Structures are given as C-alpha cells and as structure tokens.
From TrEMBL:
Keyword Lipid biosynthesis attached: no
GO molecular function: hydrolase activity
UniProt superkingdom: Bacteria
Keywords: Hydrolase
Hydrolase keyword on record: yes
CDD domains for this protein: CBM6-CBM35-CBM36_like
The GH18 domain, residue ranges: 6-320
Protein name: Glycosyl hydrolase family 18 protein
Length: 822
C-alpha cells in the first residue's frame, strides 16, 4: 500500500517481558515483520532453540497473519562461531545450511529466516563472508523461493567504515543476497563507552547516506534502539565494583529515575529520592538527564580562561582546548624596555623597530642607561625561524652568551621567545652596552628588557568555573541535598602521545608555500584554497606532481605523516620521502611500498580508491601514510589509527623531506615530527572547590627520559611509544573524580580551576554531584523514535524502521505509528 511506503516496522522478541506481550496484544496491527529471537547457532553449525519459546508466540502468530514471522538465528556476537561458519570449519557451514532447512520444515508457517551473525573479522575476509551469505540465501530460496531472508548488518559509513571493527561487511556485495536488511545502527554508545546518544545523528547520517548508494533502499530497515543507558560518573568502575559505567534500561526504567523512584544507595536512604527534569538533545533528537547532579558546565562556560586555550565545538559538544604551548612570562618591574632598533650596526644587518636580522658578518650594538645601581635580570627576545637560522651571540658589557637551538622538535621554531641573558647581575648606575653578533644567518633579535625578576615557562592555559549547588525538592516535597557530601567529576578527552611536533602543514595560511620554507625539487606544486569560505583559515589542498620539500637538506631521524587524496585521473605512486627513502601508495598494485632508491624494501597489501571530481574538494577520501626513521630502521604506518604495517632496514640517509608523486595528487596534511621524542596529551591539574589540589592523567613510562620544562619524553631505546607504558588512553571521553568533599554546602558558590599541562586535551564538561552517586542517562522516547522513523521514510526513502527490541519502548509509541493492515 502506498500509504505504508517507507513505514514498515520490524522488531525482535528478545525481552520476553510483560510489556513485550502487552505490545503484541494491543499493537500487533502496527508491526510488519518480527524476528523470533529464539534460535542460537553453535560453532559446529548446529542450531538450538533458546530464549522466548515459540509456543508462547503461537497465539500471536496465528492471530496476526499480516506479520512476516522470521526465525532469527543469532551467534550472540561470538567471533569463533562467525569464523567457523564462514570458513566451514569441520563442515560447520554445511551443517548450518541443513539446519536452516530443518527449522523451516519444523515451522512451516514461518515466512523466512533472519540472520543475525555479528563479530566477523576485518576487510580481508569480506569475500569469504559474502560467499557465506550467498550460500545461506541460495539455500533458503532453493528450499522455497517464497521464503524471505533478512540480514542484520553492522553500521557502516563506507567500505572499511565500521566503528566496531566489523569490516567484513560490504553492503553492496551483500545486497543481492537478501530480501531485506536491518542495519543495526545502535550501539555507538554502550556500557563501556562515554555517555551519549546510543544512535548519534552524525553516525546515522553517515550510515544511511552511504547505504542508499550501494543497496536498494526498499530493502533497508533503519535501526533504532528502544533502550538507553545510565552511566555512573561519580567514581571509577573498579571502585564501583563494575566492569563498565553503564547500565542498560528500558524507557520505563528511565521514567522511574525521572520520577524519583530510584537512587544510587540501593533505592533506599541515605541518598534522597529526587525527581528530575530531562534535557532534549536537539542535535541528536534524543532526551537525556543528569540524576543527582547539582550543577554542571560545558568547557566553554568558564568564567575566565587564558590563552592558548580556545573554545571550539564538535557534534554539539562545546569544549576548550589548546593546540600549542605558549611562553608564560613574568618580568616584575621593568626598568628598560628596548625594541629591536640598534644604536649602530655593521656587516649585513636588516634593522627595524620590531626585528633585527643578522646576515654575513652582521653585528649590532644597543645602549641603555640605569638610574641607579642594583641587581637586575636581563632578558632578550629572539627568533630562530628555521633549522639553519638557529644561533646568535649576545654580550652584556663584553660578557658574551651564546644562544643556539638544535632540537628538531623545539616548540619555538617559527615564533619568538624570551630567554635570560643575565640573571641577578649587578649593574652600576649609568650606561651599559648589549651587542649582538652573527651565529647563524637569519637569526632574529626583537629587543631586550632589564627588570627586577624575569621568569618564563611553557603554558597550555587554565580555565576557571563557578559552581552553584542548590537544594532540590524530593518526592516528599522536602528541600534536600547530599547526605554525605559532594564529588566533582571532570569529563575530559585525552589522546595517546604523538611525535613531538616539528611542523604542521595544512596549507591554510594566506601564503601557504613561501619560498623561505619550501622548495620544489621537481615537477609543479600549488595550493587550492576554498575562497568562498568565511573561515579565517579555509580548507585547502596541496596538489601537484614531482617532489616538494621543506627547504632544508639536513634532516635525519624524522616522523612524517601525510593525508593523501587520489583524484579520479590518478595512476602510479604517491607518498613521502626523506633523502633516497620513499614510502608510497602504489595505486596500481593497491599496496603500500617502501623504496630505497629503486630497491623495494617492504610492502603491505591494502585498498584505497579515487575521489570523483565532484567530491574532490567537499568530500574527499583521504588515506593516511607515515614513516618513522631512526638511524637505519624505518617503520611504516597507515590508517587513521596509525597502525604499524612493517619495519625495514635502510641506509642511515640524510637530506630533504617532503611529498613525492608520479602524477597529480592531492594532499590535505603534511605533519613532521621528531623520530625519538614524543609529546603526551594526557596531564591536567585541578584546584578543587574545597581548596584541594590534584594532578590527573600522567602515565608512568619506562625506556625514556623526560624534559621537565616542555613535558615531553625521549625514548632511550628503539621502541614503539605504546611499549613504554602499561596503561592505555581511551579514544573516547573519560572521567576523573575528586575525593569526597563534605565541606561543600548547597546555597554557596564555589570556584574550580583546571590547569592543562599538555596540549590537545579537551575540557568537555564538569559535574558537581552527590558523592553517593550521580550519572548521565540517555533514553529513547516517542518523539525521538517518531522523528527518525520519518527521516527513514522521507529523507532516505527506506523500507521502514526496525527497533531493538519489543518491550523496551514507551508503549505510547505505537499510537503514533501507522497500522500495517486496513
């Protein structure tokens, strides 16, 4: 019927609870397809009956003839079972196929089979996995061509695009071997993940934008959860006696939290019973709540924060972060503040009020006068703009100090910095002289200060928040607060350490390839920028062929990462190089290859594709390639997760570093890092509301030495960074907790200061809650499910919506869904 186009509903009989049977009794006329979740397959291929009994379902099967009743065969996410069936281990697939026929013979009234096989392997097994589904489909159709086959598929945003590792699944390959497909686009958030929508908008849009291009939309059921999660965020899971923070719940369990029927002290005192109001996440079209949270703030809600912290947003989350460290300076009382213009100079010198640059035999002299004798600090402001412009000699009244910098990763390359010329020096009343002279051509001098007390340190910035806990009204109408005390929880996003940054080039600057920094060794290179963008630094792409390099030919041990985009006309090789070592994507062979000169030193088979001209600027497919050279050992990595592919022994070369391509290629990132030194993205400190100070996040490491000034570490052995630590860092938001704070009282305002020690940490949210328990709760309500059912029907024009699972939903949902029969 045309009125039901895009509005078919599929559910599963997993719950077996009273509400499941109530939904069947009252609303069976709203359901198109039901998967009878009553069958499990073993590694042998044998199928056993388990779960909701078929006998309990027969009254409904006999009553609702319009429903397509499918026998759901599940492996409960066991990879060993999936693998045995796929590989036909000891005849497992053959037995499985015969078992399907046995079941259809046993239950001749069934309309077909629903295959729910999860936890397959990676993309390398996709052909064998597809063949397994083909064999299942052909077996069912050979038995009875009228029998239907539904397949349950993981959420994929592309080939190799599973967030859960289910890359065996290729939608386009499976499309011929099913009558319908239920995409299980739920579970992005789960018990062990950071709190959030079970099915966030960004994930859903990525899945279905892709799915409709490679599958018949009339076959696709849009998967939505009827359940939610309640994540406890007042302590670590191990201290709570749990493996994970989250506890799953139905709509009605969420309702009981909202109405104050539950609490975190076993639904009994001492924690009060407090009704709460839910929030509506308009980005993801889902409700959420904060049980027993007395105040919370997003990162951007800081009453003050200091540079280099910046406010940013991602998928509706407003956070603070810093992308680089800055010098934090203090001068005390400044007695002399002198700019860069000298009183005299000789040799090749470029002078101005802002900067003096030394060339061949360059020297410059500055005079300053003190009103009285005393002990002073003298600080100078310098700039070493490139690796060969890294030295200058400076004297105070004839006492010379040499300033130079040879660290490849040094954070002040391409910027200015202050440093001590003399600390606590006794200077007489009257005139004194500072002289600068050539160390390396191109070194820059910006001036000096004579002051009472100079100090400097790298800083990532700090943010201060004001929290205002107030009493809540409990179920009895009494104004209440925590019985024991408050706890503060910080939601932060940390990352694993990366090579200490030498140069980050995304080609977004106004002058993206200045000749002072870059050289074209061969071919032609240019930068495209999105001139229509209103962004300060618009999206850009490097494009060209030949060799483009940083204008410095003495690189040795480096870490180099590139994000390569293949236009539709591309053929041949493209990648990155250092000297005669070349690491590339060989498009024609679909391999990553490493060469020294013309000698192939190693390779890794993978897959990559071209981007059409229509998408090359707006939606390109990019592929990450990187090498780490340490002496004569070269490691090759690829993918967004920086996966080590192979290691090879090469000559210990030096030379230029850059990008190389046989034919025109596009690149959106070149990142140069140190091969041995790493920058962690993990530590922060907190000044608590009760005045306590606590440090979080720093991991214990071995086989490395620390630079305490810049908070970086250098390996002392040729290892992977992961081998220096036993702890891991979540790639998701994580939670850090204060001790119990009994002195904090409702009715007062309190200050919290977060001091970041590392860059690339996100300050996401902070929560002040009842120390006996507080949480973040997400659930699905009628508005959420109806919204996405309409998107499935009208935006993507799919078959309809499938929902996991019957009996978990708000039963009022069915009043808003169309009857499937007249």
């Amino acid at each position: 019927m045309e009125r039901l186009k895009g509005k078919k509903i599929m559910v599963w009989t997993f719950m077996g609870n009273a509400r499941m049977y109530e939904a069947l009794e009252k609303y069976g006329d709203r359901i198109d397809t039901i998967g009878l979740f009553s069958f499990k397959v073993r590694t042998t291929g044998e199928i056993v009956e388990s779960g909701v009994t078929i006998s309990s379902m027969l009254p409904y099967i006999n009553r609702y003839r319009h429903i397509k009743w499918l026998l759901t065969i599940a492996n409960d996410g066991a990879n060993s079972i999936f693998r045995a069936l796929r590989d036909n281990t000891n005849g497992a697939q053959e037995l499985f196929l015969s078992e399907l026929i046995r079941l259809m013979e046993k239950y001749p009234w069934c309309d077909g089979i629903d295959i729910d096989l999860e936890r397959g392997d990676d993309y390398s097994t996709h052909a064998e996995s597809t063949t397994m589904f083909k064999n299942i489909y052909n077996t069912i159709k050979a038995y009875d061509s009228s029998k239907l086959m539904n397949i349950c598929l993981p959420g994929m945003t592309s080939v190799n695009g599973s967030v859960g590792g289910e890359n065996w699944c290729v939608y386009g390959d499976l499309d011929p071997y099913c009558d319908t497909a239920s995409i299980m686009s739920y579970g992005m958030a789960w018990s062990g993940s950071a709190p959030g929508p079970v099915s966030p908008r960004s994930w859903l849009e990525g899945i279905y934008d892709y799915a409709v291009t490679v599958m018949n939309p009339d076959k696709i059921f849009f998967g939505m959860p009827a359940y939610g999660w309640n994540w406890q965020i007042y302590d670590t899971p191990e201290n709570l006696g749990k493996a994970y923070r989250g506890t799953s719940h139905t709509y009605y369990a969420a309702k009981y939290w909202m109405t104050g029927a539950y609490n975190f002290t076993d639904d009994a005192p001492p924690q009060p019973f407090i009704p709460i109001v839910a929030y509506w996440d308009d980005e993801n079209k889902v409700p959420w709540a904060l049980p027993h949270v007395y105040d919370y703030m997003e990162g951007r809600d800081a009453t003050r924060y200091s540079y280099p912290l910046l406010s940013a947003s991602y998928n509706g989350r407003q956070y603070l972060t810093a992308y680089g460290k800055q010098q934090k300076l203090a001068f005390g009382t400044v007695y002399v503040d002198h700019d860069a213009m000298p009183d005299s100079y000789s040799g090749v010198v470029s002078v101005s009020n802002s900067v003096t640059t030394l060339g061949d035999e360059g020297a410059a002299t500055y005079h300053f006068t003190l009103a009285q004798a005393g002990t002073y600090d003298v600080a100078v402001k310098l700039g070493f703009p490139f690796w060969d412009k890294n030295s200058i000699h400076i004297s105070l009244d004839g006492n010379e100090v040499d300033f130079s910098e040879n660290r490849l990763w040094w954070p002040y390359w391409r910027t200015t910095f202050w440093t001590v010329l003399k600390k606590g020096v006794s200077l007489s009343q009257g005139t004194h002289t500072i002289t600068i002279s050539l160390g390396a051509k191109g070194a820059q001098f910006y001036g000096f200060r004579v002051c009472s007390s100079f100090s400097e340190e790298p800083t990532v910035g700090e943010a201060e928040y004001t929290l205002a806990p107030r009493h809540f009204k409990d179920v009895n109408g009494d104004m209440v607060g925590p019985a024991t005390g408050f706890k503060l929880t910080l939601e932060m996003l940390r990352r694993k350490a990366d090579s200490a940054l030498v140069w980050y080039e995304d080609f977004r600057d106004d002058n993206p390839l200045p000749q002072s920094y870059w050289t074209t060794l061969s071919g032609e290179w240019s930068v495209w920028q999105d001139t229509s963008s209103s962004m300060n630094r618009p999206y850009s792409q490097l494009e060209g062929k030949g060799q483009l390099a940083w204008n410095y030919n003495n690189f040795s041990d480096i870490h180099l990462r590139a994000q390569i985009i293949f236009p539709e006309t591309f053929s041949g090789k493209a990648g990155v190089f250092i000297g005669t070592i070349y690491c590339c994507f060989n498009y024609d062979n679909q391999r990553i290859e490493l060469y020294e000169g013309s000698t192939l030193k190693g390779s890794y088979a993978t897959s990559f594709s071209k981007t059409s001209a229509a998408n090359i600027r707006s939606n390109p497919s990019f592929y990450t390639l990187e090498i780490r050279k340490r002496g004569n050992q070269v490691r090759v990595y690829s993918s967004a997760s920086n996966t080590l592919r192979f290691t090879a022994t090469c000559s210990d070369v030096t030379g230029y570093v850059g990008i190389r391509s046989d034919n025109k290629v596009h690149c959106q990132l070149l990142r140069l890092g140190d091969a041995w030194t790493y920058e962690p993205y993990e530590r922060f400190d907190v000044l608590m509301p009760d005045g306590a100070f606590k440090t979080y996040g720093r991991l214990s490491r071995s086989n490395c030495s620390w630079d305490d000034e810049f908070q970086v570490f250098t390996l002392t052995a040729d290892l992977e960074e992961s081998a220096t630590r036993s702890e891991s860092i979540s790639l998701d938001y994580d939670f850090f907790h204060s001790d119990m704070m009994p002195s904090i009282q409702c009715g007062n305002d309190y200050s919290v200061t977060i001091i970041l020690r590392d860059i690339n940490i996100w300050i996401s949210r902070i929560f002040l809650g009842d120390g006996d328990g507080f949480s973040i709760l997400y659930y699905q309500d009628v508005d959420s499910l109806v919204y996405w059912a309409n998107e499935a029907a009208y935006r993507w024009k799919l078959r309809g919506m499938c929902m996991w699972s019957l009996g978990q939903e708000d039963l009022r949902l069915w009043e808003w869904l169309p009857k499937q029969i007249e």
